[in-house]
Amino acid sequence: MADTAHLLAALDFAAYKHRGQRRKGTGDTPYVNHVIGVAHTLATVGGITDMVTLVAAVLHDTLEDTETTAAELEDRFGTDVCHLVQEVSDDKSLPKQERKRLQVEHGPHLSDRAKCLKLADKTCNVRDVIQSQPVGWSLERRMDYLDWTEKSAVGCRGVNAALEEHYDRVLRRGRETLETARSDDMVTTEEIEAMTIAITLGEDKPPESYDEEHRDTWKRLFIQIKEIKAKDGVVDIPFS
To answer: Is residue 146 predicted with pLDDT exceeding 80?
Structure first.
């Protein structure tokens, strides 16, 4: 199969496998946009033309977040692509914090292809967390996520300087954005979580004791959660 057709086949496959899934942000973005963005970053920022890497980028979340099997990937896209997708996939049977710890630990031992893919993936995730706040995520949780991506990116350095510099720029700008917001953020992580639970359980009005900022936060969460609950079959995929 010609390279262009091979990449388009992967895009078609990913779009089907991720159908109904949305990113966690407020924009309700189709999940497939993320994997396209990762491949685009590899090609346009990293200058990567290796088709195994680009195809694997488009498919990189299919094993983790869909019912796709490794055998299915190997049959359709070949052994090299399948192995690369497996290399960057977490073991979803493990607790989330353990998966995150292992990503940091395993980074230095990844192949060069996998390191580039991981770095592009983290760059796109950081950008999305900043540009489209995940529903129910406090400012502190977003900052913690940025800190974790920095740790996981350490082991992926030394392969593609352009991707590294791009990640660093996106991370720096993201931190600046969140630091600016921090000074005005008077709603705590615990309050955000309590609001999210209450709204999910059916509460439709904020408590009378809330000040203006807390009421604004409640209203934003209420609209976001109402939109998500109204979309039957939509799966909310967390950033990883």
So the answer is: yes
> Is 105 one of the catalytic residues?
no
Same domain, 29 and 104: yes
Quote the number of domains for the chain: 2
For residue 195, what is the DSSP state? H
Query: Which CATH number is 23's domain given?
Result: 1.10.3210.10
Residue 204 annotated as catalytic: no
Catalytic residue among 61, 65, 128, 164: 65
What is the phi-psi region of residue 205: left when phi exceeds 0, alpha when psi lies from -120 to 50, beta otherwise?
Answer: beta
Question: Is the same domain home to 83 and 54?
Answer: yes
Q: Which of 235, 227, 238, 239 is nearest to 27 (CA)?
A: 227
Q: What is the pLDDT of residue 237?
A: 46
Q: Is residue 166 part of a domain?
A: yes
Tell me the per-residue pLDDT of 71-85, one tens digit each, with 9 for 90 and over.
999 999 999 999 999
Q: How many CB atoms lie within 10 A of CB 187?
A: 18
Determine which one of 28, 50, 64, 236 is catalytic.
Answer: 64
* Average pLDDT score over residue span 175-181: 82
- Residue 37 in any domain: the answer is yes
pLDDT at site 239: 54
